[in-house]
Write a structure and sequence with these properties.
Elements (H helix, E strand, L loop, with lengths): L1 H10 L3 E6 L12 E2 L4 E9 L4 E2 L2 E17 L5 E15 L12 E2 L4 E9 L15 H7 L13 E2 L2 E2 L8 E14 L6 E13 L21 E7 L6 E9 L5 E3 L12 E12 L8 E16 L9 H4 L5 E14 L6 E5 L28 E13 L10 E2 L3 E14 L8 E7 L1 E3 L3 H23 L27 E2 L9 E2 L4
């Protein structure tokens, strides 16, 4: 009986339709992507099946992130689940009273239309994040995050693609319409009818400075050394060094409504150095170099006040991590060209950072280098994102973060060595270009800033006071006086001296 009563009540609610400009109908499977500073324009239509009283109509553009984490005990049963929800964005469309029925009763069979216009903001308001440890983290948390974790929206247009996110983390945007009535008894707001339409948001993200990675970092490794032997039970051939630095970001194209046709690429550079145990020893033969991309989604059921890390994750039951790894490429590097160098002095490796190179651009010496001959080589590794997945930019929010890492594995053809011999793990970013509207807005802001500086210069105060004593004296040394200016030097007995025009 309760089920039937509920269905009857729902059937009597006014019908709400949300029409979005630039889309193919109300119920189309085609989803438009919106970027930073893009406009969301449309119309809300409300048709009541019978006379319906309401007090307020709210049309809003909202953004919400939701997470949940299962807490496990030492046994096989679950100890409970923690959940969190954060509404980080809410923009309300102003509605004039004259456009609403007077009194507030929607007449049966009549359709009421209300236009709306929203703009995807460049950043969130300060109140969206207030529990951080420093300004850098707050600036990251105030970036508008991308849509994430919704299989109905992930992808381009009508093409749905996996965005490599777990069900425990979701970021969604929607146009939300609510008809509200306040109860006469206690003034509490009740919802008469409501409707939401999902929106896919792909905001612009600029490339951030490279991460600072040192030798003790547990997440990444930008340099590795390994001893290469002549044979299984023979002496040492030398010491092989492999190192790299954080490459430029993968730059996603501007948001559009079609499937991407241009691959998203970047380039990594791998530096090699071989310090032979004997001057006559030659570098080992190289095998293959493979690259893999690790996608990590961090989520938490409490607001984070720092960037996510495995140190915190291991001791906090309210944090979760989901990772996937995709193969990018594998190529033979046997033909890599080694270059011979001779140094009369011992070069030692700096301890300031793993990715340091010497002043001449060569990799730093290995820990066993004692001077003399050494060899170097470099390998350029082209990287391309798979087109059968939907990648979102690197971002950090209060509850959810997405980061990427590049794993490079090098195999060496030496006796006793099989499989990948050496590996590096380097952070890599994914950035996103802005739409044409955002670029136009950025240029207008720059022009306005320049105009403001010029305007302030006009009204800048200038000193018109007499010169101080230290500048008073003989007029002989004054060569930049205005034409026909008479300068009197009180300290000089000379009565007066006139400087002619230039």
């Amino acid at each position: 009986m309760g089920y039937k009563v509920r269905n009857l009540a729902l059937s009597q609610q006014p019908t709400i339709d949300i029409f979005l400009k630039g889309t193919q109908g109300v119920h189309s499977a085609y989803v438009t992507s919106f970027s930073t500073m893009d406009k969301l324009e449309g119309t809300v239509s409300i048709t009541a099946k019978h006379g319906t009283r309401f007090d307020e109509l709210e049309i809003a553009f909202i953004g919400v992130s939701k997470t949940w984490v299962d807490r496990m005990t030492s046994g096989t049963t679950m100890n409970g689940r923690t959940e969190a929800s954060h509404r980080f964005l809410k923009l309300i469309q102003p509605i004039e009273d004259s456009s609403l029925p007077q009194p507030r009763i929607a007449e049966a069979g009549r359709t009421y239309s209300f236009p709306f216009t929203f703009v995807v903001p460049q950043q969130l308001v300060d109140s969206a994040c207030d529990r951080v440890s420093n300004d850098q983290i707050k600036s990251a948390h105030l970036q508008v995050p991308p849509s994430l974790g919704d299989p109905d929206l992930s992808g381009f247009g009508g093409v749905l693609l996996d965005d490599l996110s777990p069900s425990m983390a979701k970021i969604s945007y929607a146009i939300q319409v609510r008809m509200i009535r306040y109860r006469e008894t206690d003034g509490k707001a009740t919802t008469v009818a409501d409707k939401s339409r999902k929106i896919r948001v792909k905001p612009a993200f600029e490339e951030q400075p490279p991460l600072s990675v040192d030798e003790k970092d547990e997440e990444y490794r930008l340099r590795q050394e390994k001893t290469i032997r002549k044979g299984l039970f023979k002496g040492k051939l030398g010491r092989l060094v492999i190192e790299t630095a954080q490459p430029k970001s993968f730059s996603l194209p501007a948001s559009n409504n079609n499937s991407p046709t241009t691959p998203v690429t970047t380039m990594a550079k791998v530096l090699l150095r071989f310090d032979p145990a004997e001057s006559s020893a030659q570098p080992p033969k190289l095998g293959s170099l493979s690259s893999k991309l690790k996608i990590s989604t961090w989520f938490s059921t409490k607001p984070r006040n720092d960037f996510p890390s495995k140190k915190v994750f291991m001791y906090d039951a309210r944090q979760g991590l989901y990772s996937e790894t995709l193969s990018l490429s594998s190529r033979c590097v046997e033909s890599a060209k080694w270059e011979r160098h001779t140094s009369g002095s011992t070069l030692t490796r700096r301890d300031s950072a793993v990715s340091d190179v010497s002043s001449d651009g060569l990799p730093e010496a290995s820990s066993h280098y004692a001077g003399g001959t050494f060899y170097t080589a470099q390998i350029l590794v082209p990287l391309t994102l798979p087109m059968n997945k939907n990648f979102v930019p690197t971002f950090h929010s209060c509850l959810i973060s997405r980061v990427y890492a590049l794993k490079l594995e090098l195999s060496v053809q030496a006796p006793g060595m099989t499989g990948p011999s050496m590996s590096l793990k380097v952070p890599v970013q994914i950035s996103a270009e802005g739409s044409a509207r955002q670029e136009e807005h950025r240029r207008s802001l720059e022009e306005a800033a320049r105009a403001a500086v010029d305007a302030q210069a006009v009204f800048r105060a200038r000193s018109v006071a007499p010169p101080s004593d230290e500048y008073l004296g003989s007029s002989t040394g004054m060569t930049v006086l205005p034409p026909q200016y008479e300068f009197v030097a009180p300290a000089s007995p000379a009565a007066r001296q006139t400087v002619s025009a230039w």
